[in-house]
Amino acid sequence: MKNAGYHVNLDGIRAFLPGSHLGSDLPSAIDELKGMRVPFKILELSRRDKNLVVSHKQYLKDEEKKKRMALFENLEKGQVIEGTIRSVVDFGLFIDIGGFEGLVHRSEIAWKDLPVPPSQYKPKDKVKVMVIDFDKEKGKVSLSIKRLRPNPWDGISERYPAGTLVKGKVVSVTDFGAFVELEEDVEGLVHISELSWGYPENPKDVVHEGDEVEVVVLNCDEETHRISLSLRRTQRDPWEDGEAKYPVGQRIVGTVTKITDFGAFVKLEDGVEGLVHVSELDWGHIAHPRDVLKPGETVEVKVLSVDTKERRISLSIRELKDNPWRKFVQNYAIDQVIEGEITEIKDFGAFMKITDDVDGLIHVSEISDQRIATPKDVLTVGDKVQAKIIGINEEKKQVRLTMRNLFGPPEVPATREARAPRKPRSRKRPKERIDSAFLDGGGHESLSMRDLLSDAVVEDENTTE
């Protein structure tokens, strides 16, 4: 039995072969072993006890060591050997070079970077390799496949100077771009920003593996083995005649591609997008562009300005609508008391809907006669309130409102006439105060109702006197 052992006849001398020393190249069944002539190494010999122990396994190890020593004696750096692939692992190939295995690291398979050995290499395949290093003491041999041919990166900058138009094949597509093979083991990267004049979200929307493409060399670095390529520069730049194609005032249909806090981007053609600022979405107050637009929506816009150098186009949607301010100015006046719904609340005040297209701002100082920390202490969105118009700026499209003293200033007490005469005040209007919080938040000039009442009292006193 293999785990027990076997009796061996050594030319008339009986010996014992432990089952563990049978060796991996022999069958374990006694019927198959019987009669076979096998080489052994003597492990133990006792004449007194007539005990002789042999090993075929140890014999194989000794023979392998002899072969290895003979191999190392004949090895030379730069030597080319034909071997057989024994196994393929993530970090390289193990090659049998005559009873001993050497390693071809993946960095020595090709002149380009490889994450793993290519699938073309399979066990039992014959392959030529070059010896690049070996260590007799450690029993290691380093081999190379790529060094059997010249380094294609030598003189690469002369073959591919910047601006050269070349053809290649797309060999891989990643999230950040596409790699194009220009020659064996020489690949360049077309970054996603250089794939087209548009703004592709995925490189696979533009190219696929196996595509034959024409590209322009942007940069070639021989030392780092990197080549930057461009696909879009083989095409016409859509911004070249932007001012002619998109004159100011032109109406054009586009597609909303992106919505931000400050506006919406609209695609006019591949590679050309314009911005509709939030202030140009509608004549009324828009809290956020997503409230009126969504990506993918088709819209008509008007060109406000074009800057081909900076690749910017300003667009407007509200300019295509009737200006509600003309009608508003005709129907509303300062000191008019109106009713409306609170549509939005900010730290600096609250917006009230006056008409479908016009909102007014009630500054925090004009909400209550009592001092309040925030408009939310008094108001909530959806409240129906009354307010008085205290300012209309047609140029800035702004309306200022107040909820204080809606129906005029309080009556002057009768006892006032008995008071000692006061020094007349100058009729010159005091310099208007500007509330910085008001300007920052809503962009309105702040003239409170308190200021208007003060002026009214001055005029009344002068008239009385």
Number of self-contained structural domains: 6
The portion of residues assigned to helices is 10-25%
Strand content: 35-45%
Alpha-beta classification: mainly beta
The low-pLDDT segments are 410-420, 424-465
CATH architecture call of the largest domain: Beta Barrel
CATH topology of the largest domain: OB fold (Dihydrolipoamide Acetyltransferase, E2P)
CATH structural class of the largest domain:
Mainly Beta
CATH superfamily of the largest domain, by name, is: Nucleic acid-binding proteins
- Average pLDDT number: 84
- List how many beta strands DSSP finds: 24
Shape: elongated
Rounded to the nearest angstrom, the distance between the terminal CA atoms is 136 Å
Spatial ordering of strands, largest sheet: 5-6-7-9-8
Q: Count of DSSP helices?
A: 7
Largest sheet: 5 strands, mixed, barrel
The Cα radius of gyration reads 45 Å
